[in-house]
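Bumping my old thread because nobody answered last time. Still need a sequence for this structure:
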């Protein structure tokens, strides 16, 4: 199976590549160029025998999408349309990553792929239009909506929480926004599992949803993450996490308060079960702690070497 990655810098693209390397028979090719250079992208794809094109390229920051809606629309809506036409021309299938932000409010009922969406922000609306463009153009496509992703990379969700906990203002987050945390390692597992089955002849094209088991409020997730971070030595003393309303954070009407997804379809068609995000949260925080300890030891060793040189 040959997978072509539109980009390789995002944590999700890196996670999928890392998982693919553990499985024999999977070849990964990373696009060498600017993702928005469609002519070059098409040229490279024509020179290869590609089974699946994986699109993880997106304008992902919902706040920036509000400030730059045209840019979000270009990357999240128009770009997938062009990509679908390229895949149609070269005969490759397209695997497109979408978001639970297309859904809007679920009103307390887990959202199904057959339900009507109501995106609340420019990011969600642009992602929805990208989905629609692909559906209208390409039969051989997989669209996967994912829950809120987290991993151990710098400046990502967990790292930001740890950094915020050290500031005088501490951490405050919405207690009335309920999300479905999803580890990037878990999402990567799901993506590869779907592709493997399609490569073996399954005809399960369509739109799917996946998120980690157990919805939780943003503030409760932050509190749990920092409790585990304290256990790993990443924070000193358990910082207070203040649960406030979405309105107090200026998020009312901009982010859905509930966007739980029904993931039964991916179980029925692919046999993929949802996993808890809790073990991955522990693993990621331990990894961050190990990395910081290694960097601290390296810096101390370098300082000691410099001191010895100065004495000599």
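Sorry it took so long. Here it is:
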């Amino acid at each position: 199976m040959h997978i072509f990655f539109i980009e390789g810098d995002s944590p999700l693209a890196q996670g999928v590549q890392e998982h693919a390397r553990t499985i024999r028979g999977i070849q990964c090719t990373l696009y060498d160029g600017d993702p928005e250079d469609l002519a070059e992208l098409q040229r490279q794809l024509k020179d290869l025998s590609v089974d699946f094109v994986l699109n993880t390229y997106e304008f992902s920051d919902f706040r920036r999408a509000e400030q730059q809606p045209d840019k979000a629309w270009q990357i999240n809506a128009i770009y997938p349309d062009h990509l679908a036409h390229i895949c149609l021309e070269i005969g490759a299938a397209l695997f497109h990553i979408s978001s639970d932000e297309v859904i809007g409010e679920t009103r307390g009922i887990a959202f199904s792929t057959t339900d009507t969406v109501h995106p609340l922000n420019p990011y969600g609306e642009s992602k929805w239009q990208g989905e629609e463009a692909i559906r209208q153009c390409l039969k051989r496509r997989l669209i996967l909506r994912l829950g809120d992703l987290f991993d151990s990379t710098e400046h990502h969700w967990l790292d930001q929480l740890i950094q915020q906990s050290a500031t005088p203002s501490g951490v405050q987050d919405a207690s009335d926004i309920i999300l479905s945390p999803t580890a990037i390692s878990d999402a990567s597992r799901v993506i590869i599992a779907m592709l493997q089955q399609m490569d073996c002849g399954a005809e399960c094209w369509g739109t799917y949803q996946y998120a980690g088991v157990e919805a939780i409020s943003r503030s409760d997730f932050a509190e749990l993450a920092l409790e585990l971070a304290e256990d790993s030595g990443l924070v000193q003393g358990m910082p207070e996490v203040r649960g406030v309303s979405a309105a107090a954070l200026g998020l009312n009407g901009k982010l859905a308060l509930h966007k739980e997804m029904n993931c039964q379809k991916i179980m029925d068609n692919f046999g993929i079960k949802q996993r808890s995000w809790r073990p991955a949260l522990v693993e990621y925080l331990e990894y961050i702690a190990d990395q910081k300890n290694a960097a601290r030891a390296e810096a101390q060793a370098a300082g000691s070497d410099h001191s010895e040189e100065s004495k000599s």
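The chain has one domain: 2-281. Let me know if any region looks off to you.
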